[in-house]
Each structure stands twice: as structure tokens, then as C-alpha cells.
Write a structure and sequence with these properties.
Pfam families: Hexapep, Hexapep_2. The protein is mostly beta strands. Helices cover 8% and strands 34% of the residues. It contains 3 helices and 40 strands. The chain is globular and about 75 Å long. The mean pLDDT is 94.
Length: 313
């Protein structure tokens, strides 16, 4: 989605952008780097938290003293970390990971995909496409689809049926949205397909990873609310509802008619069974099988999943 650009920016300019009180010497950086691969003339970050929203701590310990061996580097970190560092220029932040991302977006990267529709894509009639939309190579966009402003749809993606995609959403390559749900009825001799004639509503600022599928509902609506983030190789079944700002990690399966609340985290390889309801702010541990309903703030692990503790948020 992004590509690095050539740049040279002063630390004080970055500090001004972050509204961080920086009093050490001013110098220029031209690179971004990680604590695993530190480079001279770069900006990097350190945080004890891998995600502040879900209160998840990083599991890797870094030797920050080694940073003294590099020239012209600046570290974005919190006040606690700054107090135990010497001779290392620091920009203090309450959320170092977020501020590092903001600095990258402002000074170090360009958008790789500019608005436009690739000539190899098939765009049917009777649909709506907003402004500044990117549709990559070999996509199919069916009739009755509505695409909001600033949406990006990457290569080999298909969007079918009565599907609405909100503004600023991103759909990565090889994804299918609006496919038939897995619904069959055994008539005593063979399995007959239950026709799916419902719709899909995808909110604003949604991210859907590569090789994922979002099934349209049988009769009603499959709903992906604003700011939902869906990783690679995720299946979202028909008639499912996913609440605002929920994250769903790679290889997870959300079965049909499931209802997932707001601000939930579904870790990799998990399964949310048919019709299950999860409350707001739930966390589902890796490879869990959730087969029954759970209330708000549940932290779940296991197969079948059980409550490990309550989420303190």
C-alpha cells in the first residue's frame, strides 16, 4: 500500500509535528529503522505495549543500551523509558507505536496506488463508484455495488451482489465479497442450495486482508461496521454482524449468523461458531473455538473456549 520515499528531515521538525518537547541537539534523519535492524541516521520507536487498545504487552525484550553505538538516531518512547536511557536522543510519546506510524505517513512514505481503474478490470453497469477510488488489475465489480470515496480495491478481487463499501476502506488482493453463503438443505436424497439474496454493508475505514471472503446474507444483511480490521485468510459467514473497531486476525472463521461486539480482538486461527454472540471488548485467544455466547469484557481461550479472566477495560 505504501512505498518509501527519499527524504531528509530535522528532528525538531518531527518534534513539532508530534508536539513533543525536544531539547537535545538538532540533526537530520533520512531513514526509518527497527530495533532489530538499527541504522545510522534513522528514527525508530520502542514501546512495552504491542497494542495499547487491547492492553497487550510486547513479548520481546530489547537491549536499548546498544543504541549508543549508532550515529544520528532518535528514539520515540514513553517517559518511563527515557528516564533509563543516557546519551540517546528521545522524543517522548504516550503512544510510541502510533506516533512512529504518524511520522512515517507524514515524512517517509508515499501512497503506492493512485486513484484509477485498471483497464483489465470488469466493471458492470448500474453501480456507483465514488471519487478517488483505486481498482487494481483483474478485478470484477458487479451490478448494484456501491463504492464510497477513497476506497482501494487491489488486484484479482471480486465484489458481487447488493454490496456497499464505505469510504476510505481497503480491500486487498484475491478477496471475494458478496459470494453465496454455505447454506444447503438435505431433501432425503441430495443437498439443495438455499439461495442467498441478501446484502452486505461494509462501513468506513474498514480493512479486509488478502484471500478473505465475506458472504452475503441469505435474506437480510451481513454487516461489517466502521473501522473493523480483518486480516488475511479470514472467512466471514452470511448474516454475520461485526461491531465497530473490532480486529479479526489471520486464518479465523466467523460462522454464519454470529454477532461480534465492538472493540473485540479475535486472535489467529480462531473459530466463532454459528449464531454465537460476543459482547463488546472481548478478546479471543489464538486457536480458540467459541461455541456459546459470552458477555462484555470476556477474555476467552481454549477449545471449547472458556473465560480466562475479565478484560479490565
Amino acid at each position: 500500500m505504501f512505498e518509501l520515499k527519499t527524504t531528509k528531515i530535522s528532528i525538531k521538525k518531527i518534534a513539532t509535528f508530534l508536539k513533543s518537547n525536544y531539547t537535545d541537539k538538532n540533526f537530520h534523519v533520512s531513514l526509518i529503522s527497527s530495533l532489530d535492524n538499527v541504522k545510522n541516521n534513522s528514527i525508530l520507536f520502542y514501546s512495552e505495549m504491542s497494542d495499547q487498545n487491547f492492553n497487550l504487552k510486547d513479548t520481546i525484550n530489547y537491549d536499548l543500551k546498544k543504541l549508543q553505538n549508532y550515529k544520528n538516531i532518535v528514539l520515540i518512547c514513553d517517559e518511563k523509558t527515557k528516564k533509563r536511557l543516557k546519551n540517546i536522543p528521545v522524543l517522548v510519546s504516550k503512544n510510541p507505536r502510533l506516533d512512529f506510524s504518524r511520522v512515517m505517513m507524514k515524512f517517509f512514505v508515499n501512497d503506492e496506488f493512485k486513484p484509477g481503474i485498471h483497464s483489465s478490470s470488469i466493471i458492470e453497469k448500474n453501480l456507483t463508484i465514488g471519487k478517488n477510488v483505486y481498482i487494481g488489475p483483474h478485478c470484477y465489480i458487479g451490478k448494484n455495488v456501491k463504492i464510497g470515496n477513497n476506497v482501494k480495491i487491489l488486484s484479482n478481487t471480486s465484489v458481487f451482489g447488493k454490496t456497499e463499501i464505505g469510504q476510505n476502506s481497503v480491500i486487498l488482493s484475491n478477496t471475494t465479497i458478496g459470494s453465496e453463503g454455505f447454506g444447503f438443505i438435505f431433501d432425503g436424497t441430495s443437498s439443495q442450495h438455499f439461495p442467498h439474496v441478501g446484502s452486505i454493508t461494509i462501513g468506513k475505514n474498514v480493512w479486509i486482508g488478502s484471500n478473505s471472503t465475506i458472504d452475503k446474507s441469505a435474506l437480510d444483511n451481513t454487516i461489517i461496521c466502521d473501522d473493523v480490521k480483518i486480516d488475511t485468510l479470514v472467512n466471514v459467514g452470511h448474516n454475520t454482524s461485526i461491531g465497530k473497531s473490532t480486529w479479526i486476525s489471520a486464518n479465523s472463521t466467523i460462522c454464519g449468523r454470529a454477532k461480534i461486539g465492538k472493540n473485540c480482538l479475535i486472535a489467529p486461527n480462531s473459530v466463532i461458531d454459528v449464531g454465537v454472540k460476543l459482547g463488546d471488548r472481548c478478546i479471543v485467544g489464538s486457536s480458540s473455538l467459541v461455541r456459546k455466547n459470552f458477555p462484555n469484557n470476556s477474555v476467552l481461550v481454549g477449545s471449547p473456549a472458556r473465560i480466562l479472566r475479565k478484560n479490565p477495560r
